[in-house]
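Chapter review: from sequence to fold.
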Amino acid sequence: MHNLSFGSGSPKHFHAYPRTDFDLESGKPIKRTQKSKHSPLYPIKMIKSFGSSLQYYFKLHPFVGFFIALCFAVTIITILSLYENHYRTMNSYHKFDIGLDDYPFPKLQNLVMVAGHSIYTSSSCGKIEKEDSWYLEAYQKNAGQAATFVTHVEEGIDIAAKDESALLLFSGGETRKDAGPRSEAQSYWAVADSKAWFGKEESVKWRALTEEHARDSFENLLFSVCRFRELTGRYPQNITVVSYDFKEERFAHLHRSAIGFPESRFFYAGTSAVSNAKAGALKGEALVRAQFQKDPFGCQGSLYHKKLKRDPFHRSIPYPNGCPEIESLFRYCGPAPYPGSLPWA
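The token string follows.
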């Protein structure tokens, strides 16, 4: 049997050529695109694999896993909170970043605030000095009590009339459920209007407005400062508070110090209480003053709960939207003085 020799094209040399496909008609090799080593689902598989490994690790070390998860959650919450505060603050600044001439009262510089003490409930404005025309607490039911409210209104108007650059604000919210959705501030404004502004209507009425959310004396002051900023585009150069004379220490020292307003630019106009109720008023004032000494911002304990009771209709308080520069002052709560910077300091 003869041994056959094969040429270079014989089958035993096929392995020397790369494997490929040929077009039978043209005889030319067909080029094929090399497939990617990783399919489009590869990233998903990687994530699932990482998740499985993480789950397995947490099963082996549950306490470590819990601690890591807790830290991660706290970090996310903190970041979101900071972003929210920044966004809200920037929005507030943007909203109020306008020229002074765009505010209703850009030329007014000083604040005269009359603190409200009751709500006028009568349908007639001709009975403003009658006790049964006002909603009175038990300790207020004294002959001549209504006249003291009218005196506060008149005193505020007189002070504003002497200062052409003053904005007069009557301050006080809807503090009594049985009095209905009427505010102390609107009651005082209505009294002023019924009395034709005690002969000073042309001078004062156009710059006399209301602050209708305050629930205690501290908020009378702080909210009025913010309201002043909303209306004028600036913070008051000087502040004058009108209330009872026995409350001077509370307003002029405790509340003024709490908001860090300079003593040299703060003034107090006190009027007398009803003579036959003065002893009880002084006793009650001493108690409230002691509470504010321990809780200057009225944000804890009995002062805080009293404030909640004076919001029977759950009104949403708009501040500090109108005064973004002192937003942190509104949020502050503690026995120590506010540590931040203030526009009037």
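Two observations follow directly from the output. Residues 62-95 form the longest helix (34 residues). The first strand starts at residue 21 and ends at 22.
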